[in-house]
Design the sequence.
């Protein structure tokens, strides 16, 4: 991909910006002629991965899509415009924000239809995690997103710990029930 030295130089948010445009066809839609939510999530994942790849300059894998808002439907024939950029880089992971707009071809009206936050992990060709360069926010908006990404990471970590504890408590309860059933 690129040398480790050049990969670790801090990068600007703007260097990660990526954009993808798709025309929505019938095979992308449900029976009402609306874009399928799963298909939209696929487009979001691809666009987010492009931003993460541009920042890390190595392979990336999706670790989480921890928030997505579907604001309004997208119809067959609409143009879907997706824009992504890295909000913050951690050790081996990056949070990427993706915003999605629809452009109505006849009117050229743009409407915001979805937003999502994703986490990507940088890996080498063997799937082992690799460090990513720092990101340098320049504008006030980039700084706001940078700070928000840390808050969202802390929330994700707390939620992950809560789920682990709940799983352990459930397993302990099942073990107690199994032991009680064997004794009784």
Sequence:
């Amino acid at each position: 991909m690129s040398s480790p030295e050049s990969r670790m130089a801090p990068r600007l948010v703007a260097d990660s910006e990526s954009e993808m445009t798709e025309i929505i066809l019938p095979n992308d839609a449900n029976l009402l002629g609306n874009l399928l939510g799963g298909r939209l999530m696929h487009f979001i994942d691809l666009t987010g991965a492009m931003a993460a790849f541009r920042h890390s300059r190595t392979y990336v894998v999706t670790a989480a899509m921890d928030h997505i808002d579907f604001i309004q439907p997208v119809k067959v024939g609409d143009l879907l415009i997706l824009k992504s950029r890295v909000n913050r880089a951690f050790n081996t992971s990056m949070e990427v924000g993706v915003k999605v707009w629809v452009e109505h071809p006849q009117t050229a009206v743009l409407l915001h239809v979805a937003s999502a936050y994703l986490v990507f992990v940088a890996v080498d060709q063997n799937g082992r995690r690799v460090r990513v360069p720092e990101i340098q926010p320049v504008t006030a908006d980039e700084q706001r997103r940078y700070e928000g990404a840390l808050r969202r990471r802390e929330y994700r970590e707390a939620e992950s710990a809560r789920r682990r504890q709940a799983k352990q408590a459930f397993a302990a309860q099942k073990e107690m029930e199994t032991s009680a059933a064997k004794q009784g």
User: Anything to note?
Assistant: The beta strands are 11-12, 18-23, 59-70, 79-89, 93-103, 110-123, 135-136.
